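Handout, section B. The chain below has 258 residues.
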Amino acid sequence: MRQRNLLRQFTVREIKGRYRGTSLGALWLVAQPLILLAIYTFLFGVIFAARWPEASSGGLEEFALAAFSGLIVYSVFSESVARAPGLVAGFPNYVRKVVFPLEVLPAAAVLASLAQGIIGMALLVGAEAVFLGHVPWTAVLAPLMLLPLALLAAGTSWLLSSLGVFVRDLASVVPLLLQILFFLTPVVYPVEMVPARFRPIVALNPVSILVDGSRGLLLFGRVPDLLPLAAVTLFGAVVFVGGLAFFLRTRHAFADAV
């Protein structure tokens, strides 16, 4: 909170920097998730003929919207965490400035991803109104799911951005782990497709709970179970505090490593 002005500046800079120099510019905020949506809808919706049990019509457009809701939530986490290992190491000039609050860098990346997530949710609600003709009242609660997601993403980003200064291999390892996590999370498939013996693994994945909960609020008018949501929020708070504490404790050694 003390660095909120600096944090706001770096968040805007982060959003602009992701698409600076590209032909489409900020339109990539919309184009990129739509391209991924088309690919996964064809793969899972057409080839594997997956359908959500809660869907009213069972049509492909409803499947696409359900998959899109999962992509929105997962992307907030994955985009923040994927950039984390190189954030501090990529700004050696800031590291050598003792007075610069380096913890702002991972936090700004998370806020930039959250902004994209909010835009994605707005697009989803608009598409839902057009293609399905209705939007459940629970959709107004969907942004609340972003709070535990932000806590989890920020804490993980602080941890990885600190470790990334000393272990440069993390820049290659983390994207691979995120790809594995993607397929262990019911982003583009319903959890009912997972064999029963593997469902406990999915259930223990905190991102899965947030993805499924957001989908229920945005599309199916389903309020998530409060106990798992409270557990994920508490876990996210622990990761948030622990990640920040680890970052601040190791910050003094950054200048010798970059």
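Note. The first helix runs from residue 4 to 19. Compare this with the example in section A.
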